[in-house]
User: Fold histidine kinase from Teredinibacter turnerae.
Amino acid sequence: MEFSTVTQIAFASAALLFFIFSLTLIFYSKRIQLHWSFYLAALIHAGWLASIPVTSLLAPSTPGSLFCIETLHYAAWIYALVRNTEHLCSSKLPKLYKYGLYAVAIAALLLALAVDGMGYTGKHIDQLVIWQGILFSIISLLGVEQLYRNVLNYRLVKLLCLNLAFIFIFDAYLFSQSLFLYSLSADLWQARAAVAMAASLFMTVGVVTLNQPAMQSAKLTLSRPIAFYTTSLTLAGALLTLLAIAGYYVELHGGSWGTVIYTLLLATGLISITVVFSSNTTRERLKVLINKHLFSHKYDYRAEWLRLINQLSQPTTPDEIHTRAINVVADLFKSRGGALWLRRGKVLVPVQQVNVVMDISEMIEPESTEFCLELEQEWVFSPHSPSMALAQHNELLPEWVEHLAEVWLILPLLNENSLVGFMALTEPQDKAMLNWEDLDLIKTVGRQVASYLERHEQSELLAESRQFDAFNKLAAYVMHDLKNLIAQQSLVVKNAEKHKDNPAFVEDAMNTINNSVVRMKNLLRKLQHNEPEEITVFPVKQVLIEAIRRCQKSKPTPTLRTLSDDWKAKADFDSLVMVFTHIIQNAQDATHEDGYIDIEGDIEGKILAISIEDNGSGMTLDFIQSRLFKPFETTKTGKGMGIGMYQAREYTQSLGGNIAVESSPGEGTTFIITVPVV
Assistant:
């Protein structure tokens, strides 16, 4: 194949790709907000590329026309660069600089028209093209440099400037070398088409992926991965060199690879542009790739990391740990507040809320839901995001999220790939759309906060374990005393015969002592943990009836409302009775004798919710969140050890249920106990 044919294919391919780039610019014109001269310059550039193969086919003897079109495309870019510098930077360039460039461009156009009209050909035209190419490529580079320097925070324009600079630098090289050879190099002239193809492809991808003029830092830099892979690129360059040598060998012995190479470049460019236009996922990935490896980062990660570590390492009380975790994350992302859920057995329960209006105490999430499973994959949910990429799993969000309109995002808290909990943040004042940097930082912060919470959880468990060790020692002393008491009571029973003259006294004493012996033996058995749990299936109604019977000596007497016999649980009967007995006794202690305690049941799916409501003294929210379910915390001085509610919730959660509390001081309390049914 002749050289001219390869040149025609090369420039025709470049013209097609540059025309697609021009149409892409026009399609996104409302978003990118460039001056109209930029679109015109791109179209003229495409027309200039197309004119080279067209002229060589239809009018090969008119080099003056090509000179005119060459001059026109440079003049168009000079005008476009000057106008866009003023348009995008809201500042006027020096008049001498601006009008001087205009004058040079107009003079060159007039000269080109005159040369074409006079019919100059041959070396005269070549020399004019070479000198004009050197002059205009340098002037164009000057215009690109001004636009690049003055547009601070527009990443697309920065990317366009880089590609235009690539084109003009190659032009300067082409014409400078040709100046020494006194003629244009055929090989470099073909390569000029390849440069235009590559630049148009990159600019098209840039327009599709970076078409929002967001005020993000557009400072160019190279990421560590890019620097690291320089070695790989060097190896790839060596392979391409070998390929070029092989191509030279083929051409030397007949034939040419030029047609194959340019056809391959054209096909690759068209396929790439089609994929970018048709695939949202590809556009998003390209956008992340460009922003991640070409521009400086939005966050100063070193500063953010040091600030996070400093805040989390400050001394704090156990009651403030959850609040601090929320505040640290909320401050980082300028959020007003949030809420925290942590794993408790087989469910994730809300443990704290900051500046969240709605009560979240009943918003419990089982660990087996698709929502939690997706959180385990480190997915960040954005319930109200307009971005399809961020909202693609929002159908998995639980129903309670709909009632929290203020939720901005939900981030997972993972520690060693295990879901510790999750945090919901309220919407910040700056409602900017999340990008890859935000998501990376959110996930990293989530892991650090999860580690922080896990460490404090382990510390609390260790402290509780030590308390239980002390409790076990205490229990040993109690059992010793109880044994002595039982022996004494048994002796009383044996010696009671001396009072047989008073039958009423004897009978009452015997019944009382015998009952105390039975109860103390039961207590000993429980304290010694010798009795394993017996798991059976039974109606929950029977449990409540037994719990009410055990509490019947105290007032007010609980009232059992409608409860179906069909609602059955699978558990240890006595342990579940203990749960309800503790709660009923607490309600009786907090309620006046003429008050009320109502017990009702309601079922939803496979979860039975039992509510125990009283009109007693009530509790504060702070007491409920920080003290109610903690072991060895009690308000009944001298009457209890403070482990009843702790045991009740621990056992309920081991079944897959939970205990929630609604209370206000002076208005009463409602306990909601949820248990799975079979």
Notes: Confidence is low (pLDDT under 50) at residues 215-255. The longest helix spans residues 436-495.
